[in-house]
TrEMBL record:
Residues 9-100 form the Roadblock/LAMTOR2 domain. It comes from the Bacteria. SUPFAM superfamilies: Roadblock/LC7 domain. InterPro entries: Mycobact_SerProt_Inhib_Rv3364c, Roadblock/LAMTOR2_dom. It comes from Kitasatospora misakiensis. This is Roadblock/LC7 domain-containing protein. Pfam families: Robl_LC7 (PF03259). SMART domains: Robl_LC7 (SM00960).
Amino acid sequence: MIQPRTNMDWLLKQLADEVPHVRNVIVLSADGLRMAQHGTETDTADRLAAACAGLQSLAAAVGHEFPHGDGRMRLVVIEIGGGFFYLMAAGARAFLAVLADEGVDAGLMGQRMRDLVARIGEHLSTPPRRGEPVA
């Protein structure tokens, strides 16, 4: 696991406390390594982080089809039977992921995620691995 530059546990807990129906909050690197978590077991967080890496890669591939954009994924929302999944870009090569139950307020969730990213985005950045291109 990549060690974050600062302890983000309380910030992730704050997001979960401010938005009713949040189940899990995870911060991950672009290559799918868990950096921080709240509300979930380590094994679950690791599986979600790995899945998020694939999802953000897929979203970036779709993004390249927009000729006037930069092709970077900013936010992915998936509605699943039982709840919602949110994945947001959060600093260079880092992402914020949230699992929430069906009753979540989508507008509040998006706002609180953006607020969190704005507050600590620079602390969420991960350096590229050796030999990996810088995005």
